[in-house]
Design brief:
With 91 residues, the protein is mainly α. It has one domain. Helices cover 88% and strands 0% of the residues. The longest helix is centred in the first third of the chain and has 32 residues. The chain is elongated.
């Protein structure tokens, strides 16, 4: 049970960190990538929309399949997409 709680809190920490980390970075990202204020607002919104969309899809899939496999697949997709965002040369 403790292992399940540790995994749960780690995942919730990652989601919270990603959701709230970008807001303080918006001015820096605007300067580095020369992005307008209107477009930079979509950085925060796109993460929230993507998270909500995948949560709606992953719930029914995990009900029909093995929840552990769906969770590992989701975390792998999250890690790969975060890495790709980190090495992106432009906005």
């Amino acid at each position: 049970m403790n292992r399940v709680l540790a995994v749960f809190f780690t995942i919730m920490f990652m989601i919270g960190t990603d959701t709230f980390l970008i807001s303080p970075l918006l001015p820096t990202l605007q300067q580095v990538y020369h992005v307008s204020t209107e477009l930079s607002g979509w950085m925060v919104s796109s993460y929230a929309l993507g998270y909500a969309g995948f949560a709606l899809i992953a719930g029914p899939i995990s009900d029909g399949l093995n929840r552990k496999k769906v969770m590992v697949l989701g975390m792998s997709f999250f890690a790969i997409s975060t890495f790709l965002c980190g090495i992106a040369p432009s906005f």
